[in-house]
Every structure is written in C-alpha cells, then in structure tokens.
Prior knowledge:
The chain is an all-alpha fold. It has 19 helices and no strands. The longest helix is centred in the first third of the chain and has 32 residues.
Amino acid sequence: MDSIQRRYxxxxxxxxxxxxxxxxxxxxxxxxxxxxxxxxxxxxVYALALAVFGPFRAALIFVSQMTNVLVRGPKSFRHSLRFVxxxxxxxxxxxxxxxxxPLGPMLLPFIYDxxxxxxxxxxxxxxxxxxxxxxxxxxxxxEGLLVQAHRTATVTVMHALxxxxxxxxxxxxxxxxxxxxxxxxxxxxxxRVLYLVLAAGLAALFHHHRHPEEDSALSLREMLAFFxxxxxxxxxxxxxxxxxxxxxTALNPTGDPALPNVDVIVAxxxxxxxxxxxxLGAVNQFRHLMVTFGRDELAQLRRFMVRTTAVITGLMLVVxxxxxxxLFFRYLQGATGETLRMVRQAVWxxxxxxxxxxxxxxxxxxxxxxRRTGGMLVGALMRDLSVLVGAAALSAVGxxxxxxxxxxxxxxxxxxxxxxxxLTRSWLRAAGQPGRDRQPxxxxxxx
Length: 447
C-alpha cells in the first residue's frame, strides 16, 4: 500500500467504524423490540413509523458534507449555521402536524393499509420524533466541521458514546417494563442530545477555518441551490422503503390467515435491511472521502474504493454463507421461527448492494465537489421509479414476497448509480473534460 492509500485509510477507517457504530444502535433496538410481547408486531410498527418519519429526517443526511464544502471562513460559517437551523425548523413542522393534529390519523391510512390501533401507535412514535429533526441538523453541522478538521476519529468516539447511552436507555426500558414506543423513542432522543453537546463543544475546540481565502457571504439562493437537490435525493431514498412496505401491506390488508403474514414480511425486510446497512454504513463514508480528496485524486480514490468494497462484500458473504447468519439473526436480533427462516433466504440478495453503493457514491462525490448536485436528485427519482415499477410488476404476477421485496433495494441503488454516472459524464463532456471521471492513475508517490 503506497503513502496515498495509507493517507486515505487513516482518514477513512474511523468513518467506516462510525457507520458500524450507528447501525449497531438499530440492531439493539430491533433486539429489544423482538423481546417484547408481540415483538414481531412491535418491530413492524417501528419500521412503518420510521418510514413515515424518514423523509423529513433524511433531508438532513448531507448536511455534514454540505458543511465541509461550503464553510470556508467566519462568514460562510455563520450563514451556513443559520441556514441549517432554519431548514431544520421548517422540516419539523410537517412532523408536528402529523403527530399533534388530526392530519396524522387521517393521512396515514392512505399510506398503510393497517388497523386503526396500528395507526395510533405510529402517531405516538411521531410525537416523540418531533424534536429529532432540529437535533439531527445541528449535530450534522458540528460533525461536518470536525470532518473538515480531519478529526474523523473524534467523530467515531462521539458516536460510540452515543451508542453507549442508547444501550443504557434500552436496557433501562426493558428492565422497568416501559412501553416499547417510550423505550425506543428515548433511545433516539437522549443520545442525540448528548451527541449535539459533544459536537458543538469539540468543534469549537478543534475546528479552524482551513480556507479563509475562499470565504465569502453565502446567499440563501446559493445555499438552497446546493442543499435542495441533496435533500431531495435523501427524501426520495427515504420514500423507497414506504413504497416497498406499501406493496407488502397490500398483500393481505384484511389479515386473512390464508394469505401472507404482512407483519412477518415487513419484519424480514427490516431485518435484512438492517444487516446490509451495517456494511453500507462503511461504504457510504466514501462520500466524505470524495468531498475531501476527490477534486484532484480520482484515480487513487477509485482504486481505494474498489478494494475496500471488495473486502466489505467478502465480509458480508462470510456471514450470509456460514452459521454466523444464525448467530446474527437469532441471537443478536432475536428472530425465530418463520421470521428467521425467511430472513435467511432474503438476505442473499443484499450481497450486490455494496458494489452498487460504491459506484453511486463515486459519482455523488464528484457532483458535490463541483456543486452540480442536481444530478443526485434525478438519480434518486430513477431509484424510486424503478422500485415502484418493479414492485408493481411483481405484485401483478404474484411474485412479490419477502425475497423480492428485499431485492428492491439492490434494484434501486443500481438504477440510481447508472443515472448519476450518465449525467456526470454528460456535464463533464459539456465542460470539455470527457473521461475525467475515469482518469488514469498516476504513479504512486514514493514512501
């Protein structure tokens, strides 16, 4: 490994570990829910609630990358912070309306064909979720400052502390017999408050403006032009699972025991998605790598990303193809009986996802560096369209089940990656830089 690859590894591995830490929290939540009475039903309710909340929270996923790109000095820092605070409050409003007004019970049945009691528990989750949007936006802003300062290991430690508090809240809730909604909701809110406090304090300590000569006042129009396509990309991604779950709930809207068990299929898709997300958390950190180094080092970055993705896919295969799958889903996730059997079948289709995500993030990084984020939004539209068409076609011929529903995510990411690649190559040709995204690799620097 040459010196450049080692530099990438030093920057990347704490971020990859951070992705694993983040998903460990979701694993712990699944484990706790499945150990409640009617655990499969509780997991399904939580998955459906997250799918409703997801589009609003997802709009802020790229705030840390936006902060890394736009913040160059004191002026851009102030304007960016005000923008993130304002947009977080705007996104909180629809959550509050769904949670605290009759709109929630009125609108949710149009999304999910489930009993009214299930709708009521989804609304209860939304009430607890209301403060999370602002906490998320400000936390990601502080995280972006720390990544810009190359303090990626610090970010990972912060997430580890957040995970420790999450585990403590879950254990307390189980021990004292709290309602599942209360247990899960507090395990999201309290650790996020801790993370925000740490991010703000450590960013004030470690962050220094690395490019003050590039600092300028940022107009609202400029920030919206950068943010909105990325927010739309994230929102559309968060709609992917509601589309998948919507077609699942349509398989058996009346709860007929002769038809597929909707709760089990939703739980299976959720468990398989959580499994793949543990590994995808590491692959998704390629965006930070691309934003930081991707302007002039594409060939070296591409080599690093391909090698790392191959290792991640190999690790997934080791789990899926061995008794480790039984250990993971039965003992770490609490799946048993029919749920365990079905998730072990479905999880095989997730093996192609790391490659598709790597492919997509390589081009996502390029459009962010060059502030051409509109291509991300078009790719996201194609992602959801492919899921909608695929799920509808499979349902029409009676082939939509736990395996094919899980396979919608690989289909989605592949469609998105192909779209973003074609659009990126198109504007590179228009800019007189054809083939820049595939530039040959330079000789490695001597050690």
